[in-house]
Amino acid sequence: MEEVDIPFSLRFEPHDDVKSLFPKTAPEDPMEYVKQLSSIPANSTLYNVYGMSDPKEIGGKELYIGTLKLDGQLTTSLWGDEKLFFKH
Known about the structure:
By secondary structure, the chain is of the alpha+beta class. Helix content is 14%, strand content 25%. A three-stranded antiparallel sheet has the order 1-2-3, with no helix packed on it. It is elongated and about 45 Å long. The protein starts with 8 loop residues before the first strand and ends in a 6-residue tail after the last helix.
């Protein structure tokens, strides 16, 4: 089996397809995010993904990994509304 290098860190850069869709400031109403997400066209490329080989301080290089792309349209769900929570 081929050895796979695991990136030290990842960076997600908004793709040109979507980076102009959203305002630069956060909305006061958290539900405004849902409205903003529903404006993303189906099959849009969301991010260019880059990975660092090692910490920059010890000579790590940033490499392009690929893109993160939608497979269809974003949708809401009752499960997501009632069960999916992120603690931060």
